Here is the input.
Amino acid sequence: MMDPVAEFLGALQLERGASPNTLSAYRRDLADFQRFLRDHRRAMRQVGSSEISQYLLRLNREGLGPRSVARHLSAVRGLYRFLLREGWLRRDPTEQLETPRLPQRLPRTLSLEEVAALIESAEPDSPAGLRDRALLELLYATGMRASECNALRIEDVNLLAGYVVVTGKGSRQRLVPVGAQALHWIRRYLKEARPAMVKRRNPGTLFVNRRGGPLSRQGVWGIIKKAARRAGVRRVVSPHTLRHSFASHLLEQGADLRSIQTMLGHADISTTQIYTHLSSRAVREMYMRFHPRAHV
Here is the structure.
């Protein structure tokens, strides 16, 4: 008997190149939806919009916020659209449902001074320390996601031309320039540290762990969290914090939104436009500082 969720997840992976993290999130949310259906003794093909509305109401009562509820609905909607497309349903029960309104949440960013302190806190006096410095420099220099950085192979970095080939969501590739500071530390890492860290089989990835294997997503998070502690940055700092800081600092220095969109790998410029709100804060600070009638 056909498992609709397994078929849907397989299609996501094959047709859209969904990442393991995306597939895991969909699988988790759809398993929760299936539990709801079992509790109400309803088959997936018998569900109407009223049952899905009840499911969303239950999520609200359990304390989930609008963003989490929207994510669950997205998974359920994707499943039913797939079933409709494959001819297993005659209508989509989610088509009349509205996605919960999401509050616009500005991304967390660091100041230029905080970024410099965080990056420079990595002591390049050991192979691991040199790797950490090169990794932090590259993340801030390119605005890459952690998963994209993990996937980088040595041949993806062109040290002479000064760019990296980044493979993003849906296996889409983009060229991102790399500044002189990051290139300097990557050269040092490749020459002085990586050969000492790769012990047996060379994995081919640019960044490796202490055992010589590919650096994991958790490994990148750990490196950044330790650097933030050493630098005295008290806020929560993640790989995405450096990505957001990269974008907002470029915008504040006069870069145009389309260029930032290309470097970040955003399919839609509306995703990039959130950084204009960050720059407006800088404009307000400038106004309050210099306008002759800004203060009573």
The two ends are 74 Å apart (CA to CA). The chain is about 60% helix and 5% strand. The mean pLDDT is 85.
